[in-house]
Amino acid sequence: MKSTFLLRFAVAVILIIHSVAGMFNGGINDFGRLYLDMVGFAPFGMFLAWSIKISHLVAAVLLLLNRYVKLASIITIFILIMGIIMIHFKEGWFVVGGGRNGMEFNFLLIFVLLAILFPNGFQKAQTNP
């Protein structure tokens, strides 16, 4: 997994900055109350929103430490996919430019995490005759 350090570092920085910003600007609370509660997660919207952001922070630390990378990546991929399904898909592809709040960034993060999980790609198992 040493060969994945640059990818792990980049994803960790993104997860940390995205999470910490939301903690201090009210974004996590707004996401919990104004979105998750409204789409049917009430009264657990705030708990879910904070759980998602804390999971991002924990995943970032684990990626940096190269510990439990598979678990951290799988959980983060799940959260990113759910973000696409619930929020970003209906906004289209582009995050900025040709649209707003689209799914392109989640798509990229998912595939970077897959590259971390499978640094040698998807290879068929070798069998010896």
Structural summary, described in words:
The chain is an all-alpha fold and 129 residues long. The chain contains 5 helices and no strands. It has helices at 5-25, 27-41, 45-65, 69-88, 104-117. α1 packs antiparallel against α3 (45-65) and α3 packs antiparallel against α4. The longest helix has 21 residues, at 5-25.
What's this model, at a glance?
The chain has 129 residues and is an all-alpha fold. 71% of the residues lie in helices and 0% in strands.
Number of strands: 0
Q: What percent of the residues sit in helical stretches (DSSP H or I)?
A: over 70%
Spell the H/E element sequence.
Answer: HHHHH
- How many helices? 5
Could you tell me the radius of gyration in angstroms?
16 Å
Q: Unreliable stretches, pLDDT < 50, 5 or more residues?
A: none
Broad shape: globular
Distinctive features:
129 residues, mainly alpha, 0% strand, globular
Record the SSE blueprint:
Layout: H1 5-25, H2 27-41, H3 45-65, H4 69-88, H5 104-117
Helix pairs in contact: 1-3, 2-3, 3-4, 4-5
